[in-house]
């Protein structure tokens, strides 16, 4: 995922990406490869953001921090008035993040997706779109000549939560008005319920993805 000379933009938006940012900074200290890290946050033009903690964290980590103001939330909720806003919002955020990364001279974007995100995305695509797909550890965007990497892809969400709690890390509150009411939250809750009866459910799904030959996992 990481090579000599990489300049990696980390989209910082919550507990997962904060964990990733800290992990990459610590990785710089012992990995036998030289790379740099840029922290970036996109505002959505809705709600209130308090980014003081992230700025202080980046100062302590000696990482440059860029905040990009956008109107993505206003476009999705007020202009387009989307009934199912998550897909459009995600696409617009990805585009804005990738453009900002290129503007900062980065050749890679690191996202904080973890193992649970991977499985939830698979089930979302199967149940609501009728396709077997999920995101991959590394994705090359040929149009932008940019690689998207997901270093936490094998990390359980519960381990990230333990790291956050153990280090008293403050997460950014999501200003989205439907946070916690999405189809993804529905899938998360569903996985939690069925895992109560079979503790191997998530292991089985993750193993199926690794063996599936889904695009990006044919390794």
TrEMBL record:
Residues 8-174 form the tRNA(Ile)-lysidine/2-thiocytidine synthase N-terminal domain. GO terms for biological process: tRNA processing. It comes from Acetivibrio saccincola. The lineage of its organism: Bacteria, Bacillati, Bacillota, Clostridia, Eubacteriales. Transmembrane segments: none annotated. GO terms for molecular function: transferase activity. Pfam families: ATP_bind_3. This is tRNA 2-thiocytidine(32) synthetase TtcA. Keywords: Transferase.
